[in-house]
Amino acid sequence: MRMRKKKNLEKRLLNCENNLITLRSDDLNSLTAIDKKEYFDFKEMFGNDNPVELEIGCGKGGFICKLAKQNPDKNFIAVEKIGNVIVNGCERAEKENIKNIIFLKCGAEYLPKYFPENSIDNIYLNFSCPYPKKRYENHRLTNGRFLNLYKMFLKKDGMIFQKTDNMHFFEYSIAEFSQNGYALQNVSLDLHNSDFENNIMTEYEKRFSDLGQPIYRLEAYLK
After folding, report:
1. Which pLDDT value is given to residue 1?
2. Which letter, b or e, does each residue of 169-202 get, where b requires 16 or more Cβ atoms within 10 Å of its Cβ?
3. CB atoms closer than 10 angstroms to residue 24
4. CA-angle at 187, arms to 185 and 189, nearest 5°
5. DSSP 24-74
6. Which domains does the chain have, with CATH numbers?
7. The model's pTM
């Protein structure tokens, strides 16, 4: 079901100028657009040299806000292409005075245009849309198309953390990671009944967990 557009959305997004960057490319072909680099200067962006971590598909921002508050010695970038959704995270960060998050309104396929090589310490993929229909497979954030884009800016010792409630998507992701030069560790088929500690729950995760559905999690890194 399509989300109803929030009242005064454009004005609310403009009011988030302190922590929101909207990225638009004149080139609608992401494959050629990313060749024209416009790298961010993270030191200038955050005012420090702290490590930078990335969440792609941050939704309403609950996870990234909690993570940033727990780790004031790190910087975080939260990516979400839907303005109707990202505005919640921006406003929450502003309300809670969280200074170490920048929100990016853009599609993940354009990120290599803006992120320097070897610049991102870790990537979080939390409850990404599984795009179950085969014809939309290349939209999945663990499709080889995206996994190869992440290699352009993920540090050599960086990690990708994935969580999902969708078993078939999880199986697909394991295969894609394995076929695209990544190794896996700490694979869990039932996160909430495992010994994993310090898990930060997302809005979706709580909903699915309350329904008794298992949560799948893995960690991937470049071989």
Report:
1. 44
2. bbebbbebbeebebeeeeebeebbeeeeeeeebb
3. 8
4. 175
5. --S---HHHHTTS-----HHHHHSS---EEEEES-TTSHHHHHHHHH-TTS
6. 10-21+37-222 (3.40.50.150)
7. 0.95
Residue with tokens 């909690």: 66
Q: How far apart are the first and last CA of the chain?
A: 40
pLDDT by 10s per residue, the chain, length 223: 455 777 789 999 999 999 999 998 888 899 899 999 999 999 999 999 999 999 999 999 999 999 999 999 999 999 999 999 999 999 999 999 999 999 999 999 999 999 999 999 999 999 999 999 999 999 999 999 999 999 999 999 999 999 999 999 999 999 999 999 999 999 999 999 999 999 999 988 989 888 889 999 999 999 9
- Please give the angle made by the CA atoms of 130, 135 and 140, to the nearest 5 degrees: 30
Residues making up the chain, counted from first to last: 223
Q: How many alpha carbons lie under 13 Å from residue 216 in its C-beta half-sphere?
A: 14
Q: Exposure pattern of 27-51 as b/e (b: 16+ CB <10 Å)?
A: eeebeebbeeeeebebeeebeeebb
The β-bridge partners of 76 are: 53, 101
User: Could you tell me which residues are beta bridge partners of residue 160?
Assistant: 123, 220
* Amino acid identity at 131: Y
Distance separating alpha carbons of residues 8 and 123, to the nearest angstrom: 32
